[in-house]
Design goal:
By secondary structure, the protein is α+β, with helices and mostly antiparallel strands. It has one domain: Mth169, Chain: A (2-Layer Sandwich), CATH 3.30.1280. It has 2 helices and 3 strands, in the order βαβαβ.
Length: 81
């Protein structure tokens, strides 16, 4: 079973990478893009069939290691094989 974790910065947290991308886009003529937010995606493969157990483990992984919950939000999606 495949799990996708999408991580993004919480509202109000500065995103210098997003600002640099927005500035570069404007310099390239893409002037209608007013804001850019960056994030990351983590893909986990589990050798289990229980969605409940996989979701529980993925949440623990996020809370303990993968996500800085002080400044980041996360969403977990389960993809069935």
């Amino acid at each position: 079973m495949k799990v996708i974790v999408n991580v993004s910065l919480k509202e109000g947290v500065l995103d210098p990478e997003g600002q640099a991308i927005r500035s570069s886009l404007n310099n390239l003529g893409f002037e209608h893009c007013s804001d850019v937010k960056t994030g990351k995606q983590i893909i986990l493969n589990f050798n289990q069939n229980s969605e409940a157990e996989v979701l529980t483990q993925a949440k623990r992984m996020c809370e303990e290691l993968l996500v800085n919950t002080v400044i980041e939000n996360y969403e977990i999606s389960i993809l069935k094989d």
